[in-house]
Design a protein that fits this description.
With 314 residues, the protein is α/β, with parallel strands linked by helices. The protein contains 14 helices and 8 strands. Strands 1-2-4-3-5-6-7-8 form an 8-stranded mixed beta sheet, sandwiched between helices. Helix 6 packs across helix 7 and helix 6 packs antiparallel against helix 10. The longest helix is centred in the N-terminal third of the chain and has 30 residues. The termini are far apart.
Length: 314
């Protein structure tokens, strides 16, 4: 009996060591090229951590808020920042848990991000701001506008998340998944399985871009490095995302908002017309356009066409 226990302890220790080494190798492979841009970085000392942001141009302010998917950061707006800054004071932000911002081991929620956006506008921008946001982050803009309408002017949503998906709350299964991913070694191993280069490439080819020839190697590398930098701490926001902790029902807020709202949809994105119709159903003042031959990230795939509509809307 003692020999069996001893053997079990040794095997468990070896398994843990092997998993740890695999994790370290993966981290080294995905961060060795250092593809994350650091130029023009500023940091907002928020109460839950340092928030990385950039500022460029002069004029009426615009805040760009990236999606909440793995590897998301300010990088997704890189092709429209310069043109926007010709007439606007443009801010990009890495949300807490993403990009080059701090990534504490906490539960990330919609309310957390709503407070971040309101505080950032009040303390850094200092005046009423237009917002351009993507995918799952649309819910953050909606709730921030509803909670503090004086901080936000116009809003542009790029491929907003399905309202039905936003209604999903944490279940026993998703709570357990979050707990597992948050664990030091096994959780990091699970995170590696769910967020390796092959899967990120698949997201770009199947979900983000319609024309795969427009995907650049540096796009993949930037998302990959952001997903692993620094030292796997990106997994904490990911676990909250997978656990449905970032979701919230925005229908009530959407109904009550009186601000100008515009939606830009990627024509080839699955069910985008139904998704947009649902938003308009709850707020019939919303205007929408669809860009042919694009999916989730038209501002990366067809940035000039996106800019044409942004200039019309703003």
């Amino acid at each position: 009996m003692k020999n069996k226990i001893k053997t079990f302890i040794i095997l468990s220790g070896l398994t843990t060591f092997v998993i740890h080494m695999i994790n370290r190798i993966k981290y080294s492979l995905y961060t060795v090229k250092n593809d994350l841009p650091y130029s023009n970085d500023n940091y907002y000392e928020w109460r839950f951590g340092k928030i990385r942001y950039t500022k460029k141009g002069t004029g009426s302010p615009i805040l760009l808020i990236h999606d909440l998917t793995t590897g998301s950061s300010h990088y997704e707006f890189k092709k429209i920042i310069n043109q926007l800054s010709n007439e606007h004071e443009v801010y990009t932000i890495d949300l807490l848990g993403y990009g080059l911002s701090d990534k504490p081991n906490i539960t990330y929620t919609n309310y957390l991000y709503v407070q971040l956006i309101i505080d950032f506008i009040k303390n850094i921008i200092g005046k009423k701001t237009d917002i351009i946001t993507t995918g799952d982050s649309v819910q953050i803009a909606v709730m921030a506008c509803h909670n503090d309408p004086e901080t936000i002017h116009h809003m542009i949503f790029i491929n907003p998340q399905n309202l039905y998906e936003l209604n999903k709350i944490p279940s026993k299964q998703t709570k357990l998944l979050k707990i597992l991913i948050d664990t030091p070694i096994l959780g990091t191993f699970i995170y590696n399985i769910l967020n390796n280069r092959k899967l990120i490439e698949k997201l770009f080819k199947e979900n983000y871009f319609h024309d795969q020839t427009k995907i650049e190697e540096k796009d993949i590398l930037s998302y990959l490095e952001t997903a692993y930098f620094p030292n796997y701490s990106s997994k904490y926001a990911f676990s909250s995302y997978m656990g449905k902790y970032m979701n919230t029902n925005i229908i009530h807020a959407l109904k009550e908002i009186n601000h100008s709202i515009y939606i830009i949809g990627g024509e080839e994105k699955k069910e985008i017309h139904t998704i947009v119709d649902n938003y308009i159903h709850y707020n019939n003042s919303i205007e929408a356009v669809f860009i042919p031959y694009t999916k989730q990230l038209p501002h990366m795939e067809m940035n000039k066409k996106v800019m044409e509509y942004i200039e019309i809307f703003l």
